[in-house]
Design brief:
The active site is at residue 66. It comes from Vreelandella malpeensis. Its EC number is 1.1.1.25. The structure is a single chain. By secondary structure, this protein is of the alpha/beta class. It folds into two domains: 3-101 and 239-271, Rossmann fold (3-Layer(aba) Sandwich), CATH 3.40.50.10860; 116-236, Rossmann fold (3-Layer(aba) Sandwich). 39% of the residues lie in helices and 22% in strands. Strands 2-1-3-5-6-4 form a six-stranded mixed β-sheet, sandwiched between helices. The structure holds NADPH dihydro-nicotinamide-adenine-dinucleotide phosphate. NADPH dihydro-nicotinamide-adenine-dinucleotide phosphate binds next to helix 5, helix 6 and helix 9.
Length: 272
């Protein structure tokens, strides 16, 4: 019988994870079934436990449950512990739950795929939510000159900067503290979901700078359109989605899928 995995979220019906993991399974000859499971907002843990009792082997976790997933784990990877959020669960031996966070490695692999330099550069990260928590440690480990975290609620960005200060030069605050230019600006806010643009100064990018939006859509987001108009090269978060999924697949199956064809498939599915 095939091993069963799922993505747990609310909402979850538009998730691309089932398509991605089914393709990974076909490509690597791994017999898996992967479904999208809607967890009630007050019933995340119960949904995960019921999934495990039915034989489920592991899950991806998406909005808004990554912190609850972190709390239910018996064992955490170092990167999940640092992030304070879990996006990959493994139903282990004797019902023990192992949690990891693959968002950071997913972003880094995508930045590498686009040949975006990180060492010695100045990076702006917009937002201070779960996604940003997951990517700060891997970004800082690449040795940027400075990472500046800016958030609508400035105190959250300042607190995040303090939490990660042992890993490198990182400062945080509100939009009034924002001073460019930056070689790379990563939008980790959910503003693009609402078609909104955070309040950004005109001189945001260095010449040849890059703009990365963790969100992806059929059309470029308002942030990426603005960035392109201001001289930056725009990249959306589709590659990050595929790469974080590949890392989760590896954790579950110990086989690394080839992400290139799945990126291309997803891009076609997105743009029709
Ligand atoms: P959270 O809800 O945890 O955090 C949202 C963040 O966005 C907060 O910092 C919030 O600020 C800020 N924000 C929301 N609306 C606005 C606005 N109008 N203007 C400025 N800032 C705003 O979300 P996540 O961190 O989980 O996700 C963030 C984004 O990243 C989402 O779009 C998500 O889809 C995407 N993502 C993509 C992944 C991928 O694989 N491509 C993986 C994970 C996430 P405040 O604190 O002030 O409320």
């Amino acid at each position: 019988m095939s091993d069963h995995y799922c993505v747990l979220g609310n909402p979850v019906e538009h998730s691309k994870s089932p398509l991605i993991h089914q393709r990974f399974g076909e490509q690597t000859g791994q017999e898996i079934v992967y479904t999208a499971e809607l967890a009630p907002l007050d019933g995340f843990v119960a949904t995960w436990r019921a999934f495990c009792e039915g034989g489920g082997r592991g899950a991806n976790v998406t909005v808004p449950f990554k912190e609850q997933a972190f709390a239910l784990c018996d064992t955490l990877s170092e990167r999940a512990r640092r992030a304070g959020a879990v996006n990959t669960l493994i139903n282990g031996q004797n019902g023990r739950v192992y949690g990891d966070n693959t968002d950071g490695v997913g972003l880094l692999r995508d930045l590498d795929a686009h040949h975006i330099p990180l060492k010695g550069v100045r990076i702006l990260v917009l937002g201070a939510g779960g996604a940003v928590r997951g990517v700060l440690a891997p970004l800082l480990e690449r040795g940027p000159r400075e990472v500046v975290i800016i958030n609508r609620t400035g105190a959250k960005a300042a607190a995040l900067a303090r939490d990660f200060a042992d890993l490198g030069a990182v400062v945080g605050g509100g939009y009034d503290a924002l001073e460019g230019p930056f070689d790379l600006v990563i939008n980790g806010t959910s503003a693009s979901l609402a078609g909104e643009l955070p309040p950004l100064p005109e001189a945001l990018f260095t010449p040849g700078g890059f703009a990365y939006d963790m969100m992806y859509a059929a059309e470029p987001t308002v942030f990426l359109r603005w960035a392109q108009d201001h001289g930056a090269t725009p990249v959306d978060g589709l590659g990050m989605l595929v790469e974080q999924a590949a890392e989760a697949f590896f954790l579950w199956r110990r086989v690394r899928p080839d992400t290139g064809p799945v990126r291309a498939l997803l891009r076609r599915a997105l743009t029709g």
